Amino acid sequence: MHRIRNDTPLRDIPGPWLASCSPLWRFWYAVCKSNYHHDLTNLHRKYGNIVRIAPNEVSVWDPEYVSEIYSHGENVYPKCDMYDIALPNGFFNLAVERDIKTHTLGRRAIAKDYSMTAILKSEKYFDAVIKDFITALDKNFAQTGKKCNFTVWSEYFTYDMITDIVFGKSFGFCNAARDVEGGLRDLRQMLNLSPFLSYLPWIWPLTQLEIIKKTGMKHYARCMVREIQKRVREGNPTGRQDLLQGLMDARYQDGHALPLGEITNHAYIFVLAAPDTASVALRNIIINLCRNRDVYQQLMDSLLALNTANPTWKDLQNIPLLTAVVKETLRLHPPAGFSLPRAVPAGGRTVCGKFLPENTTIGMSAWSVHANTEYWGEDTLEFKPERWMDPNQMYKLERHSLIFGQGSRQCLGKHIAMINLVKVTAQILLNFDFGLLNEKNIKEVFLLLVVVDGMDVWFKRRAGGPLDDTIGSESEKPAAVTTGA
Ligand code: HEM
Q1: Whole-angstrom Cα distance, residue 363 to residue 82?
Q2: Helix (H, G, I), strand (E, B) or coil at 166
Q3: Could you give the C-alpha distances from 402 to 165, 272, 405, in angstroms and in order?
Q4: What is the atom index within ligand 1 of the atom nearest the CA of 281?
Q5: Domains of the chain
Q6: Interface TM-score (ipTM) > 0.90
Q7: Measured in angstroms, how far is the CA atom of residue 176 from the centroid of ligand 1?
Q8: Ligand 1 binding pocket mutation candidate from 411, 412, 418, 419 (most atoms within 8 A of CB)
Q9: What is the pTM of this model?
Q10: Is residue 161 a contact partner of residue 274, using CB atoms and an 8 Å limit?
Q11: pLDDT (tens digit, 9 = 90+) per residue, 132-177?
Q12: pLDDT tens across 367-386, in order?
C-alpha cells in the first residue's frame, strides 16, 4: 500500500489516504453509500481544485479546465480504460471507443443526422409520442384520481420517445401502461450493476459469464436485435427517415457503409443512453416546477399567451424561460453523475499546478463543477433559470458546464433530449395541474447516473386546458391536443 501511494508523481496530490492506495474508498462511497455525486463535491471543498480519488485517478474541480480536458482536435484526452466495460462485439462503438482517430471517423460518418436542423425534421413524430404520454396520464391518473408513480411513467415516455425515433415506431409503453417485454427492468438491472462493475475493475471478467449476460439484458437485447433484423429483412416500408435508416444510409469518408454490427452498437447505445438520462431530467423538471410556483406561474402565463394547444419548437423559442427551466434543472441535477474519466495523453500534462504522468485517469464531475461557488458565485446551488437568460452568464455556462459533456465526446443526442424535454414540459403544463405526493420518499441515488426514485405525482385536467371539456366555451378554449402526426 505504501508503494501504491508513494511510487508515483501523484503522491503530492491531496485526498483521502485510503483513496490514494486502494479502490475501496470510492467503492464505499459510490457503491455502498450511493451519494458519491455529493461526496466528491465535499472532497473538493475540503482539498481544493485537484483531488486524488483512486491510486491512479484524480478529480478536477476548476471549470476553466473543462476546455482543456474535454477538447476537440489533436489535443484530446482520450477516454480511459473504464469504458472497456461495455461488452465488446468487435465492431466500432461510438460511446466507448478510446482511439481518437477511429472515434472521429466513426462519429463523422453519422453526425449530420443529429444536428438541430436534422432532428427537427422529426418534430411531428415527437409530438405523436408526447400525445400518447399526455393521453395516458389523463386516462390513468387525471380521470381516475390515482397517484402516478412518475419515476416509472417518465421512463415509459422516454423509452417510447427513443424507440420511436430510432426504429420508426415506439415500443408502446405509454399506451400499454406497463413495462413492455421487461425492457425497463433490464435497463435498471444494468444501471444497478454499473457502479459496481466500473469501480471494481477486477470484476469485469464476471460480466462475460452467461448468467450475468442473461439476467442483465436478455429482453432488452432481444428487442433491439429483432427490430434491426426486421429492417434488414423487410426494408423500410413506411419510408420514414428514422435514425436506424440514417445509420443504414450512412457512409464513411471513403464511401463504405457501416457494418451491421456497428449499426447494432449504435442502436444499443441510443436506447441505453436516452431513457434514464432524459427521464431523470423530466422528473427533476417537474419537481422544480412544483417547488418554485412563481416560475411555474410565469411559464403558464407565457404558454397561455401563445394561444395554441400545440406549440411547435419554434413557437416555444418565444418563451426563453421554458428552455431556461430545462437547462437550469439539468445544471443543478445533471443526470450523468460520474466524472467523465479520461486518460492523460502521451508526455503527461500539468493540471492545477500538478504534473500528471501519461495514462493517469482524470475526470470532472458535472455535479462538482456546477457546485463550485468560487467560480460561479454563492448562489450556484439555487434554482435560478434567469441565469440562462443573461447573455454573459449563458456564454460561461454553455462553455464550462458539463450537462452533456463537452468537446469531441459531447452527447450526440443533446438536441433530441432538449427538444423533447422542452416540448413535453409545455404539454404537461398546458394540460394538467399537478403536484408532488409523499415528498419525503423522493430520493437521489448515485448509479453512475444520478436517478430520482420514489416520485409520486397527482394530475388533474387543467381547467380551461386542452383536455378540459367542462369549463369555458369552445371559443375560449385552445384546440384539443392534436399533434402534427
Ligand atoms: C438529458 C438527456 C441526456 C444527458 C444529460 C446526456 C448526457 C451525456 C453525457 C454527459 C455524455 C458524455 C459522456 C462522456 O463524456 O463520457 C453523453 C454522451 C453520449 N450521449 Fe447523451 N445524454 C442525454 C441524452 C441522450 C440521448 C437522447 C441520446 C440518443 C441519441 C444520447 C446519446 C449519447 C451518445 C451516443 C453519447 C456518446 C458520444 C461520443 O462518445 O461520441 N444521449 N451524453
Answers
A1: 12
A2: helix
A3: 25, 20, 4
A4: 1
A5: 86-336+382-461 (1.10.630.10)
A6: yes
A7: 28
A8: 411
A9: 0.94
A10: yes
A11: 999 999 999 999 999 999 999 999 999 999 999 999 999 999 999 9
A12: 999 999 999 999 999 999 99
